[in-house]
Design brief:
The structure holds three protein chains of three kinds.
Chain A: H1 4-25, H2 30-55, E1 58-61, E2 72-75, H3 77-96, H4 98-104, H5 109-128, H6 132-151, H7 158-187, H8 192-198, H9 206-223, H10 232-237, H11 241-267, H12 269-275, H13 279-298, H14 303-322, H15 327-358, H16 369-372, H17 374-388, H18 394-409, H19 412-437, H20 450-454, H21 470-488, H22 490-502
Antiparallel strand pairs in A: 1-2
Helix pairs in contact in A: 1-2, 1-5, 2-3, 2-5, 3-5, 3-11, 3-15, 3-21, 5-6, 5-11, 6-7, 6-11, 7-9, 8-11, 9-11, 11-12, 11-14, 11-15, 13-14, 13-19, 14-15, 14-19, 15-17, 15-18, 15-21, 15-22, 17-19, 17-21, 18-19, 18-21
Chain B: H1 4-10, H2 12-30, H3 34-56, H4 87-118, H5 123-134
Helix pairs in contact in B: 2-3, 3-4
Chain C: H1 2-20, H2 32-35, H3 38-49, H4 54-62, H5 64-85, E1 94-98, E2 103-107, E3 120-123, H6 132-154, H7 163-180, H8 183-189, H9 192-215, H10 227-230, H11 235-263
Antiparallel strand pairs in C: 1-2, 1-3
Helix pairs in contact in C: 3-4, 4-5, 4-11, 5-9, 5-11, 6-7, 7-8, 7-11, 9-11
Chain lengths: 503, 135, 272
């Protein structure tokens, strides 16, 4: 029997509890256990993807109970792709962040890795599951772990921004839960496939409409769509690097995945675009999100915060694209889930390396960074090009699909917003490059802490190469190559994975 | 009005949960004290739990524990579904209660952390402290 | 802000009320929710799982996968409290009470600690002598509470109860001990390390039962794979008992962890 869909989720879960026990015995064992668990999950996810591509969707029932009674995992192309993405990024980040974690949470690394694994389990479960309530439980696991991890970051602001996230996150999750409750009352089922079969018959019901609005609203709050984004920048900017690198690329993207899954699989595109008249308004919302995210990013003075506002902007791309109502737009949105996760991961990897060496990443701390950390900056530049949308990086292709979709749907405002935001991103990143490249290094360049023990001077002419640890650099290299490779193979991804899913 | 009253009476469970939920949501948005916000959050989540549990109720039915001896597979083993209320919402809410308790615990821990650092739990004072620090 | 909040609340309430218009009446036996799935559960659960408590049957078997994550959520909460609050810095000030005279010494110098023994005992800053009546009553009560908790865990298949409820009751007995004596008394009996390992082991029992059934060739959490070991009689009920014990262990330990960490702000020295 094929147990791979379960193994993807179970391996990190088992790993988490083994690590939780060994953390009390000896802290050193937790890291290898976490690495092994995620490695197994990655292998199983890749295996899943190949199985799905060769022989169609896999159905896996938990405890052998058939779907409406038990919980089922249903892995199709989209799931499998996102699973590979999550396990891959989580695994690479674990490789890259060993030293960052030791630097930032020195006395509780063991517990950190346990929490990290549980967070990844939550994400993987959200993506795999075919049951509406199971989805809620797993969303709560990801939320609980991220509340904790965010509070571990900045000593002054971490707990407060995390508590704000708790309040908003609870409202979001509860809205989703209420929506599921309404669905359960009118259909009597919780299984996605089962519910999807009953929805066309009751498409004029007001209860169904409210259920839909509640579910989507809950997911929007969790993914930080523009007016509901207030929690995100603080929460991600103040979290510890080892965690920010995985939560920023994955959390919002997984929520976009949930939205796509609800739209395509549960409620059905026919119900959303033909029965309801909401699509136009949502595309406008996406437009505002793109513009607002870009403009707020411009006004930031801290590199980490700037990147978090770029996330808000990218969420606008995906929501707008998904609601354009045509295949091109949806294709662009789904492709952008993959691309944006990779781009954000590369950016945060680079920023994490800077934080490791500099401590702070306000824009004026970055001067002369090209000389000091050439490899990190090379990765950063590539990722920035990808965000701006320069071919042949992957960011270009998904934007291309989104713009084509916008033109086909006649949503010219959305296309214009996409172009404007690309310009804004270009301005933003060139501002950063300028500081990093042209401005000379200051005397006391950000080494308030490190200078005493390292001892070598940092004069204006002495460009000391100070790179981040090799593991981080190697990961950054892999991800940068992936940015280009995924870009070049976008056509294959669209043909093999996305179009069969949308059919 | 004549149509409205029976509507309320027949569905008063929904009305009650909505009112309770609005109270909780209002406290979460408007209150200044973080602990009061937490209390609001708990009311909010409890309202949803009540909502779910009320779905499970069936008139004329009893709790979902099978009574009598049904272990034999003979004719006497027939169990009538109308006699027992729906177990599924109870199961779901057991999960939701645990989740809400866990969230509450984490939020409390965060409050302790904030209080240790700033010696206050009033939101406007916290905001003031933070803006002072920024300079 | 007040007006803004009020408007949002009213909008949400209006939306929810609008949605209830077409919902079935309260207690309607013919509503979809009471017909579609629930009848399947009620009519077949007894036959399929041999557990009369349908809630337990659905919780630990049909939707056992949900419950596993629910236990993981509990574990997460305990771990979160540990991660957020645990303070490993050594204590700066020590208080000792000279038992024969009742004089309390305040020691600020770290090097001049007194070894607590028969003569001196280690006390908290705001030390209040515990009341003998309270201490005695709690001493009598705690074993009964714990036995009752074990009963609730073990009897979850037949009557209301189960791992979560039993675990909470057992955890509350720990908390009662900490309240009636002091936190140190509790920490002497159950160390932090023990609680940490116990909570992880509890969830590991659950996940392990599931994963091992996968090793035996079945689906995840398929209790019927254990027939070769325990026989066919009530095998699903036995499986449920196994996972309930795991849940009970995890919940007990996590209750204690949360209480200890929040009450002492992570210093583990003095409680409420």
């Amino acid at each position: 029997m094929n147990n791979y869909p379960a193994i993807v989720v179970i391996a990190p879960l088992l790993g988490a509890f083994f690590a939780g026990i060994t953390a009390w015995v000896d802290d050193r064992f937790t890291y290898p256990i976490a690495l092994t668990a995620l490695g197994i999950a990655l292998a199983a996810a890749v295996n899943d993807l190949f199985l799905v591509l060769s022989s169609g969707p896999i159905q896996y029932t938990m405890a052998g109970w058939m779907p409406p009674m038990g919980i089922e995992y249903r892995i199709d192309g989209l799931n499998a792709m996102v699973l590979v993405l999550i396990t891959g990024i989580a695994f690479l980040n674990l490789v890259a962040s060993f030293k960052n974690v030791a630097q930032e949470t020195p006395d509780r690394t063991g517990a950190f890795y346990v929490m990290y694994l549980l967070f990844v389990v939550g994400l993987l479960g959200v993506v795999s599951t075919g049951d509406l309530f199971n989805l809620y439980v797993l969303i709560e696991i990801t939320s609980l772990t991220s509340y904790t991890m965010i509070a571990l970051g900045d000593k002054d602001r971490g707990p407060l921004s995390s508590l704000n996230y708790v309040f908003i996150g609870v409202i979001g999750a509860s809205f989703y839960l209420l929506g599921v409750g309404y669905i359960y009352i009118i259909t009597g089922s919780l299984n996605m496939g089962d519910v999807a079969g009953m929805i066309p018959a009751m498409s004029s019901s007001s209860s169904l409409l409210v259920a839909f609005i509640l579910c989507i609203l809950g997911v929007w709050i969790k993914m930080a769509l523009f007016p509901l984004h207030v929690w995100l920048p603080n929460a991600y900017a103040y979290s510890p690097v080892g965690f920010a690198r995985v939560v920023a690329p994955l959390m919002t993207k997984v929520m976009v995945y949930v939205m796509v899954r609800l739209m395509v699989t549960v409620f059905g595109l026919d119900y959303i675009f033909n029965t309801l008249n909401l699509a136009q308004g949502v595309v406008w919302l996406g437009t505002f999100a793109v513009l607002a995210g870009g403009i707020m990013a411009l006004s930031q003075n801290n590199l980490k915060k700037m990147l978090t506002y770029i996330i808000v902007c990218e969420i606008g791309y995906m929501v707008g694209g998904a609601w354009l109502g045509n295949t091109l737009g949806m294709t662009g949105a789904i492709l952008h889930i993959v691309n944006d996760a990779l781009m954000t991961f590369a950016l945060f990897l680079a920023v994490g390396n800077m934080v490791y060496k500099l401590g702070r990443v306000d824009l004026n701390d970055l001067s002369g960074l090209f000389g000091k950390m050439p490899w990190t900056m090379a990765g950063f530049v590539l990722a920035a090009f990808s965000i701006v949308g320069v071919p042949p990086t992957c960011g270009f292709f998904s934007k291309w699909y989104l713009i084509l979709g916008a033109f086909e749907a006649g949503a010219y405002h959305f296309a214009a917003a996409l172009l404007i935001s690309s310009l804004i991103c270009a301005v933003l990143f060139f501002k950063v490059f300028e500081i990093c490249f042209f401005e000379p290094m200051a005397e006391d360049h950000g080494h308030d802490v490190a200078e005493d023990d390292s001892g070598h001077g940092h004069g204006k002419d002495a460009v000391a190469m100070e790179e981040a640890p090799v593991s981080s650099l190697a990961t950054l290299g892999i991800v940068s190559i992936a940015l280009i490779v995924v870009g070049l193979y976008s056509g294959t991804i669209v043909d093999k994975v996305i179009l069969p899913f949308l059919k | 009005m004549t149509d409205f009253l029976p509507l309320i009476v027949a569905k008063y469970n929904y009305w009650l949960y909505i009112i309770l939920m609005m109270i909780g949501l209002y406290a979460m948005i408007v209150k200044n004290n973080l602990i009061k916000k937490l209390v609001g959050m708990n009311i909010f989540q409890t309202a949803i739990i009540l909502f779910y549990v009320s779905i499970g109720y069936k008139r004329g039915a009893t709790i979902p524990i099978i009574q009598g001896d049904h272990s034999g597979h003979g004719a006497e083993a027939i169990i009538k579904a109308a006699d027992y209320i729906n177990p599924l919402p109870h199961v779901l809410m057991l999960t939701a209660i645990v989740v809400s308790v866990a969230t509450f615990g984490v939020a409390m821990a965060l409050c302790v952390r904030i209080y240790q650092r700033y010696n206050t739990l009033e939101e406007d004072e916290l905001r003031m402290r933070l803006s002072e620090k920024k300079i | 802000m007040k007006l803004f909040g009020f408007i949002i609340v009213c909008l949400t309430g209006g939306l929810l009320l609008y949605g209830t218009g077409e919902l079935p009446d309260w207690g309607d036996p013919h509503s979809p929710a009471s017909i579609h799935l629930s009848n399947d559960y009620i009519e077949h659960a007894m036959e399929q799982t041999e557990v009369p408590n349908l809630v337990t049957a659905v919780l630990a078997d049909y939707r056992g996968y949900d419950t596993m994550f629910e236990t993981a959520v509990v574990f997460c909460a305990g771990l979160a409290c540990f991660l957020l609050l645990r303070d490993f810095r050594p204590k700066k000030e020590y208080y000792y009470r000279h038992v024969p005279t009742g004089v309390v010494l305040h020691v600020k110098n770290n090097e001049r600690q007194i070894a607590p023994g028969k003569e001196f005992e280690d006390v908290d800053k705001d030390w209040v002598p515990s009341d003998t009546i309270i201490k005695t009553v709690c001493r009598i009560l705690i074993p009964f509470i714990q036995i009752y908790a074990l009963y609730v865990v073990a009897h979850g298949d037949f009557s209301p109860g189960g791992g979560f409820q039993g675990g909470v009751i057992f955890g509350s007995s720990f908390i009662l001990l900490a309240i009636s004596y002091n936190l140190k008394t509790l920490m002497k009996r159950v160390s932090e390390k023990f609680l940490g390992i116990f909570s992880a082991a509890g969830v590991l029992v659950y996940v392990g039962i599931g994963a091992f059934s996968m090793v035996l060739g079945g689906h995840f959490l398929d209790y019927s794979q254990y027939i070769p070991f325990f026989g066919e009689h009530h095998i699903r009920a036995l499986g449920m008992l196994g996972v309930e014990i795991g849940v009970g262990m995890a919940v007990t330990a996590v209750m204690a962890i949360i209480y200890i960490n929040i009450v002492s702000e992570g210093r583990h020295d003095e409680g409420l």
